[in-house]
Amino acid sequence: MASLRIKQGVCACCGRTTLLTFHHLIPKKLHRRAFFQRHFNKMQLNQGINVCRTCHDGIHDLYDEMTLARQFPTLEQLRGDDALARHFAWVAKQR
């Protein structure tokens, strides 16, 4: 799956200025499922954040898509998770 790349910007998770990718807060793979269509409108399903590749990989390495969609559908919830917060803090110290 190709990710949308923005030339450069500030990562919403670690705060570094670098190349960014778009992270759907509710993974696109789940948009067709009845649960998500009943509980979220099209605009909510397509919401996302711009994050660096390292943070993006960490998010998907730590949690599967269903867990991300149900437990972390907002940036605040992503940042509030202890495991992800540790990862984002580590990434923030990288070059």
What does this structure look like?
This protein has helices at about 35-40, 40-45, 55-60, 65-70, 75-80, 80-90, and strands at about 5-10, 15-25, 50. By secondary structure, it is of the alpha+beta class. It has one domain (about 5-90). It has a three-stranded antiparallel β-sheet, with helices on one face. The radius of gyration is 13 Å and the shape is globular.
User: Which regions are unreliable across 5 or more consecutive residues at pLDDT < 50?
Assistant: none
Order of helices and strands: EEHHEHHHH
Structural class call reads alpha+beta
Mean pLDDT across all amino acids: 91
Give the radius of gyration: 13 Å
Number of helices: 6
Strand order of the largest sheet: 1-2-3
N-C termini distance: 26 Å
Strand segment count: 3
How many independent structural domains? 1
Beta percentage is 15-25%
Note the main sheet.
3 strands, antiparallel
What is the share of helical residues?
40-55%
Key features of this structure:
95 residues, alpha+beta, 6 helices, 19% strand, globular
Provide a brief overview of the structure.
This is HNH domain-containing protein. The protein is α+β, with helices and mostly antiparallel strands.
Task: Give the SSE layout.
Elements: E1 5-10, E2 17-24, H1 34-39, H2 42-45, E3 48-51, H3 53-62, H4 65-71, H5 75-80, H6 82-92
Antiparallel strand pairs: 1-2, 2-3
Helix pairs in contact: 3-6
Protein name: HNH domain-containing protein
